[in-house]
């Protein structure tokens, strides 16, 4: 059985190779030819092996490199003892040294799997025969590529080429059995195949059609993978591929912003999806919901608190997502952290112009457990913030992530996580200071119950606290007592705690019917302490500035608390081989508003050919106001009722030779807001909006509709030149005050393109270009408003909401990376050029006809700038 499983795994590894690789007739590249172009095989390792079985030695080194190794346990010489002692040796060189003098060789499949095979010799030796044949699929005359054909009872095997042909040679005369396997097919077997001396026996093996497991089918449209192996038919980029592309501060969210349908800016790590607000995106990290997970929130949410170094997989569900996700209207960003090593400890240190980091991981309990700890300290360039008109004295941030996994038993695993973040900011002009702290702790248990059933439980605690203070003094502003008094004083302290329990069950009732259900229980409490005092000032005849009367005063002290309960049930059915249907119902209850909501959703995937899949989805979605979202600065003390939305999505995906994916999707999203709210129409609000008498506008939208068509293409990721290109034609409009107007994130046209190239071993060059239509903007006029008592105050006057558009936007980013092995470890350096050809992308500021009017539209881009980073893996 072990032998059969090993050979089947090898067949699956080769079958997973992209079609383009199969058609080039390369089922595997010899190890000696693959070392130079493979980062995992070039990775330095320390080896200390003394009289270890060859099979065990190969497994250890492959595990160090994060590579999969498959082989037939009955191959000759696997039980011989080997020794190897080396420091900083490349993984490929270590493997080759272990195999030296044996009759074995390693092949590297296009998917990166190592396959151990016997060494082949050219031509038939005297007294030997061969088996030549074709592998076909039941009911078809065409050959099946990538099938693994093994000779039963021997270590010999072959892989069928693009035409289904295979050869097994150097067989002694006699009778043999053949077994063929291929992913997505039932195995085939031939017994009593006669082999003579000096000739070849011709055979045909016919594979039956076997369904892909029901749980592996991607049904929901709008599913994209940004990092790691997303599985199924989603688009995924490995961490090595992401690291080859330009990015800022190694931010996991920045790896997503170039996907089709995503709206973002130069300055912010936040993003919206398909015309929606960033607040409508649900963010999950290993099943834990993160609440506005960004550093320096006053400065456009500059960086997320999730370091890309800790990310193993990122999936973005842009629409039509299933009932297991709730609480948000627009999209789901599902982040899975990397699994820690289970062997010896390894470390990494990195330094760039924006941040520094330390990372360590290793194993314990004889490989049953693994740990990971990562810390990051950020120091964004003050010159960049000053470019944006911030008189910032200091700004920094830090975060830490820790994770431990332990395999309690063969079917039970437990993982504990900790994520903490902190930042502070001081701004000179408004006497502003802020501190922000957030902490998340959660434990996840996963159990396989037999028969395909499984349960996952997440128990979590989360908290956030934020304090911001501003005291603005004018030079001559004094009260009658002669003591300085601030013209503006803001004292804002708020925080929340949430304890939650989530449980998800999966139970297959048959091979064609799977049932999933789950619950999510949360208990939340918060504290808000907000105070505002703003005075007008008086200009006397002598030009002195005196403190005027109180213009506005707000004091709010509330401590809301409440529970939230959710439950869902999801049916996944395959009525026939090519069709998979998913239908579910979700229930949510919010104790803050005592409101219940029901959300039915359905989706389907139809395979109309071996490479083409049609998908469609429909569903209702609800988003209650979170306990952390109370607008106390506007005097609010009660929570608004939940907003609602309807999604309709349809698309087609085709996997063409030479491409990983070709995809087209169309969508319609209708939002039905039920609560009016206070919004700041400026694209990027001020750090201290309380400075102005008019802090925004009161908006009561009657509804919002977004529709669009998205096109996406990705080249073969296994080639030296990898690329993606996408285009979106979209519209997002809302109705307010009886008229139709574009939403804040309306982008009519957007184009994105990426390319990454490895010109030679150790070098990576990446480029990313994007262009889009200008977004709506609202003309903002800052004025000194005069009163009859000779006092004045700062105020903002807004033109028609979204009545103007910014100019078209375009930008090119470039990254050049170099890595090499050294005795103490592996060194990686990179140079990033942001906005390489220095596109202005800035609207022209203009002043009114005469002072004291200042009219401005918000800047939303930065000029060209550079970043250099160095990483050391040891």
Describe the structure.
With 874 residues, the chain is mainly beta. It contains 8 helices and 55 strands. It has a 22-stranded antiparallel barrel.
Structural class: mainly beta
Distinct helical segment count: 8
Radius of gyration: 31 Å
Stretches with pLDDT under 50, minimum 5 residues: 1-27, 229-236, 844-859
Percent in helix = under 10%
**Average pLDDT, to the nearest integer?**
80
Distance between the termini: 39 Å
Beta-strand fraction estimate: over 45%
Q: Quick one: biggest sheet?
A: 22 strands, antiparallel, barrel
How many β-strand runs? 55
The outline comes out as elongated
Short description:
The chain is mainly beta and 874 residues long.
């Amino acid at each position: 059985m072990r032998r059969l499983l090993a050979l089947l795994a090898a067949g699956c590894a080769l079958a997973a190779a992209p079609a383009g690789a199969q058609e080039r007739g390369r089922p595997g590249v010899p190890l000696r030819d693959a070392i130079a172009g493979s980062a995992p095989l070039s990775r330095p390792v320390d080896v200390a092996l003394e009289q270890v079985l060859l099979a065990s030695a190969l497994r250890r080194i492959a595990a160090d490199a994060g590579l999969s190794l498959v082989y037939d346990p009955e191959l000759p010489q696997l039980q011989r003892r080997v020794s190897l002692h080396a420091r900083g040796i490349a993984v490929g060189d270590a493997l080759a040294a272990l195999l030296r003098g044996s009759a074995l060789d390693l092949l590297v499949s296009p998917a990166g799997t190592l396959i151990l095979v016997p060494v082949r010799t050219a031509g038939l030796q005297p007294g030997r025969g061969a088996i030549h044949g074709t592998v076909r699929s039941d009911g078809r005359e065409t050959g099946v590529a990538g099938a693994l054909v093994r000779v039963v009872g021997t270590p010999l095997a072959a892989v069928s080429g693009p035409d289904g042909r295979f050869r097994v040679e150097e067989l002694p005369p006699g009778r043999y059995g053949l077994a063929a396997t291929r992913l997505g097919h039932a195995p085939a077997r031939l017994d009593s195949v006669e082999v003579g001396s000096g000739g070849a026996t011709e055979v045909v093996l016919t594979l039956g059609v076997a369904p892909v497991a029901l749980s592996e089918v991607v049904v929901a449209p709008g599913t994209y993978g940004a990092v790691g192996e997303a599985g199924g038919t989603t688009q995924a980029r490995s961490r090595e591929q992401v690291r080859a592309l330009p990015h800022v501060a190694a931010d996991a969210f920045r790896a997503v912003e170039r996907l089709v349908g995503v709206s973002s800016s130069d300055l912010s790590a936040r993003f919206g999806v398909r015309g929606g607000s960033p607040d409508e995106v649900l963010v999950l990290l290993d099943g834990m919901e993160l609440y506005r997970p960004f550093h320096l929130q006053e400065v456009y949410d500059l960086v997320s608190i999730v370091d890309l170094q800790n990310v193993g997989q990122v999936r973005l569900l842009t629409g039509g997502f299933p009932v297991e996700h709730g609480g948000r209207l627009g999209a789901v960003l599902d982040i899975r952290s990397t699994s820690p090593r289970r062997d010896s400890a390894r470390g990494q240190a990195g330094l760039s112009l924006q941040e520094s980091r330390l990372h360590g991981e290793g194993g314990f309990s004889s490989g049953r457990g693994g740990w990971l700890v990562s810390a990051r300290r950020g120091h964004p360039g003050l010159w960049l913030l000053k470019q944006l008109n911030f008189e910032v004295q200091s700004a920094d941030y830090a975060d830490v992530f820790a994770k431990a996994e332990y395999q309690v038993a063969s079917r039970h695993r437990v993982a504990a996580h900790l994520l903490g973040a902190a930042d502070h900011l001081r701004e000179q002009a408004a006497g502003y200071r802020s501190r922000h702290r957030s902490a998340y702790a959660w434990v996840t248990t996963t159990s396989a119950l037999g028969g395909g059933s499984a349960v996952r439980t997440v128990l979590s605690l989360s908290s956030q606290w934020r304090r911001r203070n501003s005291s603005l003094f004018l030079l001559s502003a004094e009260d009658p007592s002669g003591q300085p008094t601030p013209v503006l004083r803001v004292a804002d302290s708020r925080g929340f705690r949430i304890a939650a329990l989530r449980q998800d069950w999966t139970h297959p009732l048959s091979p064609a019917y799977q049932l999933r259900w789950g619950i999510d229980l949360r208990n939340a409490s918060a504290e808000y302490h907000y105070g505002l005092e703003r005075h007008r000032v008086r200009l006397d005849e002598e030009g002195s500035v005196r403190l005027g009367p109180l213009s506005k005063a707000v004091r709010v002290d509330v401590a809301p608390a409440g529970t939230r309960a959710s439950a869902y049930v999801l049916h996944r059915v395959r009525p026939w081989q090519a069709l998979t249907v998913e239908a579910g119902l979700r229930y949510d209850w919010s104790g803050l508003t005592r409101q219940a909501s029901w959300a039915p959703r359905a989706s389907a995937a139809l395979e109309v050919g071996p490479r083409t899949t049609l998908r469609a989805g429909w569903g209702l979605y609800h988003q209650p106001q979170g306990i952390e979202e109370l607008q106390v600065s506007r005097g609010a003390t009660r929570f608004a009722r939940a907003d609602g939305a309807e999604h309709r999505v349809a698309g087609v995906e085709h996997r063409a030779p030479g491409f990983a994916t070709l995809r087209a999707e169309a969508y319609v999203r209708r939002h039905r807001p039920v609560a009016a709210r206070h919004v700041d129409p400026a694209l990027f609000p001020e750090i201290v909006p309380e400075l102005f008498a008019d802090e925004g506008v009161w908006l009561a939208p009657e509804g919002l509709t977004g529709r669009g068509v998205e096109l996406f293409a990705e080249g073969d990721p296994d080639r030296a030149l990898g690329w993606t290109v996408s285009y979106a034609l979209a519209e997002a409009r809302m109705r307010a005050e009886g008229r139709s107007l574009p939403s804040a994130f309306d982008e009519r046209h957007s184009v994105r393109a990426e390319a990454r190239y490895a010109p030679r071993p150790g070098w990576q060059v990446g480029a990313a270009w994007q262009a889009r239509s200008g977004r709506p903007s609202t003309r903002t006029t800052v004025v000194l408003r005069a009163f009859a008592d000779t006092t004045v105050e700062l105020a903002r006057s807004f033109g028609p909401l979204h009545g103007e558009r910014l100019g078209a936007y375009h930008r090119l980013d470039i990254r050049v990376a170099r890595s090499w092995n050294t005795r103490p470890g592996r060194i990686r350096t990179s140079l990033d050029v942001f906005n390489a050809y220095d596109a202005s992308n800035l609207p022209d500021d203009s002043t009114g006809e005469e002072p004291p009017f200042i009219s401005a539209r918000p800047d939303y881009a930065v000029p060209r700038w550079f970043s250099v980073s160095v990483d050391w893996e040891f």
